[in-house]
Amino acid sequence: MIKKILFSLVFILLVVGGGLFFYLDSIVKSGIEVVGTRVLGTAVTVDSVLLSPFSGQGTISGLRVENPEGFDSQYAFELDSVSVALDVNSLLSEVALIESVVIMQPIITYETKITTDNIRALLANLPPSGAAAGNDPETGEPAQQIIVRDFQMRGSQLNFVAASVTAPVTLADIEIQNIGEEGGASSAANAIRVVLQELTRTILNSDLPSLDLLRDSVEGRLQDGAQQVEDAVDDLGGRLRNILN
């Protein structure tokens, strides 16, 4: 009798555990989209997540963060592939342990205006740092905290956008260790804040296009536009002459 009970309990645990593992990819995908959209104040979408329930290693594909309102470019971040390694068991605990996040060759659009830029706008959308920021705004209960042992962003393609002018910029690699570990675990919002602040510093320390380069590019576009208008007027005039003749 006891053996039958133990066998039944083991069977139930396997079914429940297997179901959890089966839906793990969907759980992680939904979590990134829901939490990312909530804390950044703009749409965050993911194409797919492929995560091993045993090793905790996997890939996030097609992660995109739309620009905040008031900016022309559609996306601030386009991440085709993100390699992750996490402690699967910790996903059900109060603190999720992420061993590593490695982003290779992301497309980052840095759109600057007179008083702000899209990265600072995303930072402004984040909830205030501190203990209160760790609460779920819908339930008021403490949200799950995270620790990221190793974060890397390598081979970034940065598009600098200013006054309708776009220029490619070489961006240094970013590497951050132990996000949220010092002084206790961090909320998702605070972890994102750490990454965005480091990204802002890296961008501002990079070789951004000079004002002369931007001015030349604008003048070149204006000249091209004027030439196109002149050509169109000449073409229209030629057609009218043909009709009248």
Can you describe this structure in just a few lines?
With about 240 residues, the protein is of the alpha+beta class. The protein contains 5 helices and 10 strands; from the N terminus they run H-H-E-E-E-E-E-E-H-E-E-E-E-H-H. The longest helix has about 35 residues, at about 210-245.
Task: Characterise this structure.
The chain is of the alpha+beta class and 245 residues long. The chain has two domains: 2-209, no CATH class; 211-245. Helix content is 40%, strand content 29%. It is built from five helices and ten strands, in the order ααββββββαββββαα. The protein has helices at residues 2-22, 24-40, 118-125, 188-204, 211-244, and strands spanning 44-45, 48-51, 57-66, 75-86, 95-104, 107-112, 145-154, 157-162, 165-170, 174-179. Strands 1, 2, 3, 4, 5, 6, 7, 8, 9 and 10 form a ten-stranded mixed sheet that branches. Strand 3 (57-66) and strand 4 form a beta hairpin. Helix 3 packs antiparallel against helix 4. It starts with a helix and ends with a helix. Mean pLDDT is 78; it is low at 1-19 and 235-245.
Structure class: alpha+beta
How many domain modules? 2
Shape: globular
Number of strands: 10
Instruction: State the helicity in percent bands.
Output: 25-40%
pLDDT < 50 runs, ≥5 residues: 1-19, 235-245
Radius of gyration: 25 Å
**Secondary structure tally, helices:** 5
How far apart are the termini? Answer: 106 Å
* H and E string: HHEEEEEEHEEEEHH
